[in-house]
């Protein structure tokens, strides 16, 4: 039996490289939404929200867009019983929303995260991820991808943004 603490992990992207990917995604988002006055970035709780915060900071730095940041709160393990909540009141109708998560694997988490945006008329809903693993089982495609990585189903990709000492992308 293998102890999880002894499982080795290999760094795929350093902190600097991860930051470059996030900045490039911010430029792409601005290029595709430059006619807008503002956008909403909705980050999935955890590292997805950490990614959303970094995207919002980059967009504010490089563009005149008014960026609103919200956190999507739900239990990723119990989607069918867990309503998706915003961490604050926000008007989403007729807005451009970028749903942000750290890793797109099967697409299940992102598919469920899109639910609140499908209930109202939206101008545009797009998806941004740092890593796309390409094991899609749900019809979710990321509009903005930092890094595409082919992995086996047994491998695990970990994105660390909330701990500056370990920041980067790892393969376990």
TrEMBL record:
InterPro entries: PRTase-like (IPR029057), PRTase_dom (IPR000836), PyrR_bifunctional (IPR050137)
Keywords on record: Glycosyltransferase, Transferase
Lineage top rank: taxon: Bacteria
Domain Phosphoribosyltransferase: 10-147
Single annotated GO MF: glycosyltransferase activity
Protein's name in the database: Phosphoribosyltransferase
